[in-house]
Amino acid sequence: MKHCLTTILFALGTLVAPSVAQSQQEIIDAFAEQGVGVNLEKSQITIESFICQLREPLEYLLVLQPQGKDHESLFFIEKLNAEALNAAMLMVGAEKGENGKMVAVDPQPSDAEIQEGSPTHVYQPPTGNGFVIYAEWDVTNGDGDIDHYKYRVEDLVLNVQEERTYKRGAWVYLGSRFIRPHKDAKEFFAAQGQGNLISLVMFSPANHLLGGTDPRGSSQSIWYPNIFLLPPLNHPVTLTFELVRHPQPQ
């Protein structure tokens, strides 16, 4: 923990002054004030979100409102600082992975093969360590009792082209980046300024914090909410992130 404390404090910026943060618990308490729950023993993070879309196509799993693309996200969150969430991910042990990319086929297909539909490039999903993410919520049933639901978030996203859910796997930590829109503009943290926190599909450069690893992640028009499992719009949902240091195929 000590080796990354300076990095975490830097990521928190003005949220926690180094002179104030004298212990891990004080840092954890500072995260909680920003809406980010941290459990170091379990390498776990929790945040409170809401259902954003039920019928529109998706490009993101989670966005920060009001700046994020709420018309293309399954969940949204308010009153959260993306830099605090990023710092919490570093604190529990996340290490920056590699963004998804298109890779040229080697050897390249012939002109005849290309005309027959052979690809010149294939998609390589993000690689590296990251988080398994769970979504859970409560619903009051017709008898007045409370039913509790918990799912892997991948199960809540449908690939309508292949009639399956999003492939389960670690959501790779990409860490966003600092950007400057033009030379005279002030630099800002992209995930905070743009509000796009977790992506279902490939965007390059990676301005988001986490990227999904479905092999169809280069396709932006095939992902939809799994309305068969989801609660109503704006329903509160707890998202739990559990660090996976060495992702295994699932």
Strand and helix map with partners:
Elements lengths: L1 H11 L11 H10 L3 E3 L4 E8 L8 E5 L8 E5 L4 H10 L9 E4 L6 H5 L5 E4 L5 E11 L5 E7 L4 E3 L4 E2 L5 E3 L4 E2 L8 E2 H5 L1 E4 L10 E2 L11 E3 L10 E9 L6
Mean pLDDT: 87
Beta-strand percent range:
25-35%
Helix proportion range:
10-25%
Reported for the largest beta sheet, the result is: 8 strands, mixed, barrel
Distance between the termini: 29 Å
Rg, Å, rounded: 19 Å
Category by helix and strand content: alpha+beta
How many beta strands in the DSSP annotation? 17
Q: Spatial order of the strands in the main sheet?
A: 2-4-3-14-15-11-7-17
What ranges have pLDDT less than 50 throughout 5 or more consecutive residues?
A: 1-7, 14-21
What string gives the helices and strands in order? HHEEEEHEHEEEEEEEEHEEEE
**Number of self-contained structural domains:** 1
Principal-axis shape equals globular
Characterization of the model:
By secondary structure, the protein is an alpha+beta fold. It contains 5 helices and 17 strands. The chain has one domain (36-244). The chain has an 8-stranded mixed beta barrel. Strands 10-9-16 form a 3-stranded antiparallel sheet, with no helix packed on it. A hairpin with a 4-residue loop joins β9 and β10. α1 runs antiparallel to α3. The chain is globular. The two termini are 29 Å apart. Mean pLDDT is 87; it is low at 1-7 and 14-21.
